Amino acid sequence: MLYQSTNLKLYQEVLLKINEIIEEDQLSVGDRLPSERELADRLKVGRSSVREALRALELLGLISTRRGEGTFIEEHTSHRLVEILSFFILRNDKSKKELLELRTMIELDAIRLAAERIDNKMIEKMENLIVKSEEELKLGIIPLEEDYLFHQSIALATNNHLLYKLWKPVVDYGRVILKESLERYGRPEESIDEHRKILKALKEHDVKEAEYQMKRHLQKSEFFA
């Protein structure tokens, strides 16, 4: 039975669980979702709660219902669903703290492996991301996407597919926090400088220095403020 907390309505919990079912069943755009009855059975909740969650997803354009055929996943569902689910998750302070602690653990594990395994191609990509970040900033644009891609490059440089699979949803859910961090006055410039120091350590394959610079970077980002 799903746990119904005071901070999250039951249908919102159902919404989160539906996303897990989509991932478990490896469903993609155009695929049909399990029936309302099947979802209720799998989640052990009433059909009314499932119906309410599905209605919310349909109003947001994430799914569509075809009479006599069923409910289908719409294009761009994955990205938009992450944004919506992160909104629900980050409303809960305990969940937010847990998410941020998990991100720190994964990022530090990733940087240690990346320092050992990173290749010149990935180093060049990360250098280009730093340059692009500086260019965006000169235009008055916060380099949110470049920041995300820089950290993604580190996760990919580990050459550990499972670690990356753990990294991606954690960081995707935390994009709202990243945006808030980079919107602080002077923070984008500091972040770019920190990225340079991280990259320098990666180039030198200095595991301890890379870990130190990443830990400092995460702390200065005030993710736990």
Give descriptors for this structure:
225 residues, Four Helix Bundle (Hemerythrin (Met), subunit A)
Summarize this structure briefly:
With 225 residues, the chain is mainly alpha-helical. It is built from eleven helices and two strands.
Question: Please, could you describe this protein's structure?
Answer:
It is a single chain. The protein is mainly alpha-helical and 225 residues long. 71% of the residues lie in helices and 4% in strands. It starts with 9 loop residues before the first helix and ends in a 5-residue tail after the last helix. Residues 1-8 have low confidence and may be disordered.
| Helix amount | over 70%
Which regions are unreliable across 5 or more consecutive residues at pLDDT < 50?
1-8
End-to-end separation: 34 Å
Radius of gyration: 20 Å
List the topology elements.
Elements: H1 10-24, H2 36-43, H3 47-59, E1 63-66, E2 70-73, H4 77-90, H5 93-117, H6 120-138, H7 144-157, H8 161-173, H9 175-182, H10 187-203, H11 207-220
Antiparallel strand pairs: 1-2
Helix pairs in contact: 1-3, 2-3, 5-7, 5-8, 5-11, 6-7, 6-10, 7-8, 10-11
